[in-house]
Amino acid sequence: MQPPRFNICDYLGFLLVSYCVAPDEEVRIQKRTSEGFEVDYQWTYINFTWDTPEDYKDAVLNKKYIPQNNAMGGVKFYNDRVYIALPRLRTGTPVTLAYVTPQRNAKTNLLLTPYPSWNMNVQNSCGTLQNVQSMEIDRRGIMWVLDGVRINTFTSCPPKLVLLDLNNNGKVLHSYSFHNEISMRQGGYLNDLVVEESGGGFAYITDSSALDPGLVVYSRRQGRAWKLRDKTMFAEFDAANFTVDGVSVVGFIGVDGIALSPPPKHRDEERLIYFTALNGYSIYALSNKILKNEAYCKTDQWRRFVKYVGDKSSQSGGMIMDNKGNLFYGLLGTYSIAKWNIFEPFSTVKHIYHDEKQLIWPDSFGMDSTGNLYVLTNGIIKFFDTSYPLTLNGKIKFRILKTYTGNKNYMFSGK
Ligand SMILES: *[C@@H]1O[C@H](CO)[C@@H](O)[C@H](O)[C@H]1NC(C)=O
Ligand SMILES: *[C@@H]1O[C@H](CO)[C@@H](O)[C@H](O)[C@H]1NC(C)=O
Question: Which sequence ranges form a coiled-coil region, renumbered to this chain (predicted)?
Fold first, then answer.
């Protein structure tokens, strides 16, 4: 076995933090590939726009900020901002929701600004954001924030859904806490969501909890939530073990990726919610008409309507659909992105992008209003596996890649 390479940065800690993260070769932006995706932003570590130099020094000294422990989980776009969710998977993570404003020339290590504020990111206060993995932004500029990572002990607050008005400095419009029977305070894992704007607003949410995975429906008008549990929402045994970037991933993470088909031509036609387990190959779909009917979801009858869609060639995290019915998802084990149009047979699925160097755990997708599709790659498994040593160095840990599609997201009509 090789002795560990001496790295001065591992010993001198924060004093040398700026030196230790000096950019190296790899930091230069890779140019557009034949498949059309190019790196739009990248980070070797995450840092913030601190209010004062004292705040920063204090956070470093008290280990409230440990740069290499901060991870990105979800990405969404609105107006000229990139909003980023920062799940707290390690200690020293002072912020769980933030944004960056694009800069003309700087694409590497842009500082993140806490959103809506530093105060709203305070830990261990149930009125603030505790542990966010993802969010969705509706067409009116309301962000539906899923504060639901409860797989560690960084908070004892119930998982919740918080609605922020992006056109009014992130004012909290509404906050809904989930009962323990819907998503557990300890062990719950609200992972991803899609939003349907009609009928007063519905969120369809995946709970990737190890003990109680399922699909959670939230009705804003009714102020109620209910949960559907089915074997199609559990991990698949033969998808439990794979390797990404040298890290072996062994686990049974259930339903994670979720997508919603665009509004139909006729109002009363159904829309489909697509879902897949992280440790799984199969994609399934269920009608919004069924999901929205709480009473029916409490019977056993709805299970007959779960449709098997097809098998992916690898495990995946996030998915997204555009307004033309194109479903995009990552293939974690093969460093690829797949695209399938729901109006065609599943056998027409294409692998549109492959990149073993840059596509390390494509986890979250977003679209802007000018026809661009983005994917965040985050190597998140390294943050989950607490035995994996995280270090500050010049390696890129997070990338946001972009490609032009000319389409909008699933909330817009494709007609
Ligand atoms: C983090 O950002 C602050 C500015 O907000 C800066 O003063 C500090 O040096 C940065 N730290 C690192 C490790 O880059
Ligand atoms: C996972 O798969 C690898 C390669 O097939 C194998 O060497 C390893 O023992 C497996 N691990 C577990 C826990 O099943």
Answer: none
Q: Which tens digits make up the pLDDT trace of 210-223? A: 999 999 999 999 99
| Nearest atom within ligand 2 for CA of residue 248 | 1
For the stretch 232-280, pLDDT in tens is 999 999 999 999 999 999 999 999 999 999 999 888 899 999 999 999 9
Tokens read off for 21: 């993260």
Q: 341 in a domain, yes or no? A: yes
| Number of compact structural domains in the chain | 1
The CA 334 to ligand 1 mean position distance, Å, reads 35
Ligand 2 centroid to residue 73 C-alpha, Å: 26
Q: How far is the CA of 200 from the centre of ligand 2 (A)?
A: 47
Task: Say if 167 falls within a structural domain.
Answer: yes
**Nearest residue by C-alpha to atom 10 in ligand 2:** 241
Q: Is there a domain that residue 239 lies in?
A: yes
Q: What is the 3-state secondary structure (H, E, C) of 165-201?
A: EHHHCCEEEEEEECCCCCCCCCCCEEEEEEEECHHHC
Q: Is the CB of 114 under 6 A from ligand 1?
A: no
Q: Whole domain around residue 89: which residue ranges?
A: 37-404
